[in-house]
Specification:
By secondary structure, the protein is mostly helical. 58% of the residues lie in helices and 2% in strands. Strands 1-2 form a two-stranded antiparallel sheet. β1 and β2 (17-18) form a beta hairpin. The longest helix is centred in the C-terminal third of the chain and has 18 residues, at 138-155. The termini are far apart.
């Protein structure tokens, strides 16, 4: 089976804006993905410092993924992983036990899990990774991550019940 290389290609910029999320990308970055990496890499270097940093990093990854679903969420499993991860970050405060259950649940074949990939909404929020990037203090950065995540999660309101059911299924309740 040939590898789908399109998921490795960042969305193009038009007039310095990401065509998928609408973020205005600063001139020093050639793509929204590079902007994302500039935000996530320092956290990755610090993730072992505390569970709070690990939760924050995971929330950024899932939020970014759900704002870029055409590439980040091509399969039903990747869509479910990012959407349930976003829900976990927003509604379960990034509980490690929920994340672990989700990973176990998604570890099998998609047919056994019984999910299909839904269609993403056209509107996925106005806040973007750029909003997080522009934070001037660590406290503002953290607050902006949560604000961005809540807005993206709200944009998926039509899929909340389905996502909550997936989480219940993963938790075995």
């Amino acid at each position: 089976m040939p590898r789908d290389l399109s998921k490795f290609m960042p969305p193009p910029l038009v007039d310095s804006r990401c065509t998928e999320c609408g973020a205005e990308v600063p001139a020093q970055f050639s793509s929204c993905d590079e902007l994302f990496m500039s935000v996530i890499t320092p956290l990755g270097l610090r993730w072992a410092e505390s569970p709070d940093i690990a939760r924050l990093q995971r929330l950024i990854i899932d939020t970014f993924g759900m704002q870029h679903p055409k590439r980040s969420c091509k399969s039903a499993k990747s869509y479910a992983a990012h959407l349930t991860g976003l829900c976990c970050g927003v509604e379960y405060n990034g509980a490690q036990s929920v994340y672990a259950a989700l990973q176990r649940w998604l570890n099998g074949p998609v047919e056994a899990i019984g999910i299909t990939r839904p269609t993403e909404p056209d509107y996925r929020g106005t806040l973007t990774i750029r909003y997080v990037y522009d934070a001037e203090t660590e406290e503002e950065f953290v607050a902006r991550v949560y604000e961005w995540a809540r807005e993206v999660w709200a944009a998926y309101a039509s899929q909340h019940e389905m996502t909550r059911q997936w989480i219940k299924q993963a938790l075995g309740v």
